[in-house]
Amino acid sequence: MNITRIGSVAAIAIASTLVLASCAGASEGGEGSSDLTGTLIGAGASSQQSAQEAWVVGFQTANPDVTVEYDPIGSGGGRETFIGGGSQFAGSDRAFKAEEIAEDNFASCVAGTGILEIPAYISPIAVIFNLDGIDSLNMDGATIAGIFAGEITNWSDDAIAAQNEGVELPDLAITAVHRADDSGTTANFTDYLAAVAPDVWTVGVIETWPTEYGGEAAPQTSGVIDAVTNGTGTIGYADASRAGDLGTVAVKVGDEYVPYSPEAAAAIIDASPREEGRGDTDIAIAIDRSSSAPNVYPIVLVSYLIACNEYAEGAPVELVKAYLSYVISAEGQALAAESAGSAPISEALFTEAQAAIDAIK
Amino acid sequence: MSSPAAKLRPKSAQRPGDRVFSASALTAGSLILAILAAVAGFLILEGIPGVLADPNDVSIFDDGVDFVSFVIPLIFGTLWAAALALVMAMPVALGIALFISHYAPRKLAAGLGYTIDLLAAVPSVVFGLWGANVLAPMIQPAYTWLAENLGFIPLFAGPASGTGRTILTAAIVLAVMVLPIITAISREVFLQTPRLYEEAALALGATRWEVIRTVVLPFGRPGVISGAMLGLGRALGETMAVAMVLSGSGIINFDLISSVNPTTIAANVALRFPEAYGINVNVLIATGLILFAITLVVNSIARYIVNRRKEFSGAN
At the topology level of CATH, where does A125-266 sit? Predict the structure, then answer.
């Protein structure tokens, strides 16, 4: 009787992959090059799910004979499916590592041609808290790390008070809420903490929360939001589009405190260097979390779209090109911003990504 | 058992109805065995690679954790949450069952019986939502009070959770979920207490409470125990409600009210499965195999207790 539960989890996962294909969207078709036909299959990060659903609807409206399926099985599963040739493109919260690309075992691609990776989905992660009458607090990375590592345990702690003069902080215990499930949000958040406060946050980048740091676990983004909303003196991190009325933290960058905004989130990508040793079309960003550039918000989740540079015989190459072009277009990015609260990619990144997509064979 | 049946068989006439019914009953009986075997086979085949996997290949393990140290806290959490739920549910369930069978006026008893049964029909996801969004915030001040005033008791050591999503909250939700199962079975058993025994006790001058203590409870004990074990089975395997209510991590502690709680096997699988890939899936299935074994052991123990007590209770 207990085992059927596992089955039901799997069943839910399968059911949720059935993207509503024939939903007639109201939006006007883009380029209208509707001579495309066929089916395009992608799989990967669940962080992209709502954006992908919007893109699929938008793309299929413009190209009625095309079916695009995106299976949100998770980043790891998406990368594995792509390697195994089960999908034509993958969504992943991290780029393939250089050594993984060097193994060159992508079943869909022509050997030796490498892969294309575009940071097409940029989503700011807000640090949210629930304190009566306080909408915004200033914190530097070390303070946030201290709170989530369980070292700063009270809201009236000097570390917080010193950065928030004039704000009356209550003498209240802090409950730090983190994700109970393995999540790219956690990975990107801890990547920030590890980069800016390595002395405090000593476990590096993690997806599964370390037991020794304690704190409260809640499932999925909505679970974290609920836990923070319903608790007292709670703080958590979640997709910024879901922050709602909760208080948010302005993060210290350089000498300034920057509240999250789509523009600031997109700006960090432009302010960050590329990972070294990558091909021309492999736009893997080494996000500079400790950047001191003006008006950048460093806690962002970047999710990649991954495709082949050169597909093996019989793959729907034109479809891949058209879909990826649609995703990174101003229209596609605006759609994602509207439906998933992501930050549209910058002009410079768009130009480069478009060139990479145009080169797909 | 088989010998009297064998003797009887030649005498009884075999009409088509008999054959059809015995064949369909046989099919139904063997089907359940086949299903169980299929599930066990799936769990073993898929789980063994997870047990044997090199810990370095399994990304859901923390550093230095192997399968055994991964699964032991989960086993503890599963048993701990279920035991807490049972401890809370048992007295209430017995009280309700006795009230319905022996105290309540007949009309009220019927209505109350329906209400309790209705509780069993509430989907667990609803219990989960209620537990996480209503019960937890409501009970949180009590945890703060417990931590401040009874903190010297290890169970309430704290620091109190700021959201109330603790193992105790999860156990309360589980207790509410298993309540109807235990109540329904206990009530049925209590109602079957032979009238003569009860009247005999009353004739000897026993009060209502003494009748219950000396006649009804001993008579109903095996039924109550099997009810409790069925409830325990549900509590052990409950997934959604625990996953939604409990703030769990892979640790062992007895603190009932802090943010850091042990989690259960089922909830852990539900939370981890969506993002799991490769060997991680096998590891999760292996934990499912262990849960399967735990419920098997629990049910066997229950069966053993019921069989042992049966002769002394007069329930046969």
Answer: D-Maltodextrin-Binding Protein; domain 2 (3.40.190)
